[in-house]
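Progress report, Aim 2. The chain analyzed during this reporting quarter is listed below.
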Amino acid sequence: MIKSLNIDEEALQIFANRVKLLRKERNVSMEELSKYIGFSRSAISMYETGKRTPDLNVLMKYSGFFGVPVDYLLGKTNVRDPLYQVACFSNLSTKDFGKLSKGAQKDIKNFIADVMARELNDEE
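Predicted structure tokens for the chain:
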């Protein structure tokens, strides 16, 4: 069972703005997005207007779909690219990270997503 998160009004508004921006950048309609991530079109609309607070599951689905960290969605960072985060945290250049196999890159991204999810849970 996923617990609800305590997201303040500022983070909720940032989330709403960023998911709408990301969806538009990808040129994906609310209807298409609802099919991709498994939420109703009305839920997508409510998230984009800040009328509904996302839980951890919602944050992870948006994060995975758009390929951005949860911290970006909540306004805790302006860094969108997890590869940049890996490079920063590991002193590994983005170029060198790109030399890793796709499987290794995916493992590292999944590891970061897991750590971020645990951190969000610990903050409760």
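The two ends are 14 Å apart (CA to CA). Residues 5 and 55 are 6 Å apart (CA to CA). These observations will guide the mutagenesis work planned for the next reporting period.
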